[in-house]
Design brief:
Blueprint (H helix, E strand, L loop, with lengths): L3 E12 L2 E12 L3 E5 L6 H8 L7 E6 L2 E2 L2 H6 E4 L11 H9 L8 H7 L15 H13 L5 E5 L7 H15 L4 E5 L3 H7 L2 E6 L2 E6 L1 H8 L3 E6 L13 E5 L2 E6 L2 H10 L8 E3 L3 H9 L6
Parallel strand pairs: 3-8, 3-9, 6-7, 7-8
Antiparallel strand pairs: 1-2, 1-4, 4-5, 9-10, 11-13, 11-14, 12-13
Length: 295
């Protein structure tokens, strides 16, 4: 994909009672959106905080443009944290100007306001923003230094569906500017839409990595059949099918739909509530970790 902008090598983070990150390595080429996914406790947040230079690793290292994290990384990185406390009694424009003043180089305040669609909110007290509006402000703050790499740590958690989609459009416009984005998210639709490559973590390790489409092709057959658990008799579990139970559903993956349907009908499995669809990232996540990804 190109020369790595960020390289994570043999990363380990140990605490007295647990090993949060256990030998993680990957590279992020310049200009892509790289998604780091995992259930709670998987180690993804710890990994990202080490990549951001916030936590020191127990061993291993993170390199930016071939060198250890240092002054250049701090000048060229932007971070949207899960939670950020802003100075009270400032307008949106004043908040952006305050953070812009911390850097020697970057974008003009008015350009950041335009990029993040904050023109109509620029004079509003930052405390009076809705959740989606506040995330746009925090994104603007992360962009003030015109970063080469942008970290987005679960940026749409808690937003309503419309605000989430509006935020996705903003991120896509930033991707179009050839920025490198590191995204952590609990939303599979978000990862599928925005990420060029993903790494799924579980138990402190990476269990799968690659472009979403390729990972789905590697792990799944052509289609996935879903049936409610109560429609699937115990006797049918012995059928020569690839079955998985998740969230009250029985899921069957197959590359021969007609033969699978004939098998189910012959076993007198009711198909009234059958749903047929292509597999998605959430299916992959469940197969690899056995856990549902939820905020």
């Amino acid at each position: 994909m190109g020369t790595p902008l960020l390289e994570v090598s043999s990363l380990v983070k140990q605490y007295p009672a647990t090993t949060a990150v256990n030998g993680v390595s990957f590279a992020v080429p310049e200009g892509i959106c790289f998604g780091l996914l995992g259930p709670n406790g998987a180690g993804k947040t710890t990994t990202v905080e080490i990549m951001e230079g916030i936590l020191p690793p127990t061993s291993g290292e993170v390199r930016y443009r071939g060198a250890p994290l240092g002054a250049r990384f701090r000048e060229e990185a932007g971070i949207l944290f899960q939670k950020t406390a802003l100075q009270d009694f400032l307008t949106v424009r004043q908040c952006i100007a305050l953070f812009r003043g911390l850097y020697s180089h970057g974008l003009e305040v008015e350009e950041v306001i335009r990029v993040c669609a904050l023109e109509k909110l620029a004079g509003r007290d930052a405390r009076k923003l809705s959740g989606g509006q506040q995330q746009r402000l925090l994104l603007a703050i992360a962009l003030v230094n015109d970063p080469a790499v942008l970290f987005l740590d679960e940026p749409t958690t808690g937003l309503d569906p419309q605000a989430r989609r509006n935020f996705w459009r903003l991120v896509e416009s930033i991707k179009a500017r050839r920025k490198t984005i590191i995204l952590t998210t609990h939303y599979m639709e978000e990862a599928e839409l925005l990420c060029d490559e993903i790494a799924i973590m579980d138990g402190g390790r990476i269990v799968a990595q690659g472009p979403p489409g390729r990972l789905l092709r590697e792990h799944f057959a052509d289609v996935l059949l879903e049936l409610p658990r109560h429609d699937f008799p115990e006797s049918a579990r012995a059928l020569p099918l690839r079955l998985m139970e998740a969230g009250g559903r029985i899921e069957i993956t197959t590359d021969d739909l007609e033969a699978t349907l004939r098998t189910l009908l012959a076993a007198q499995v009711p198909l009234t509530n059958l749903r047929i669809r292509p597999p998605n990232l959430e299916d992959l996540f469940l197969e690899l970790t056995g856990k549902e990804l939820r905020p």
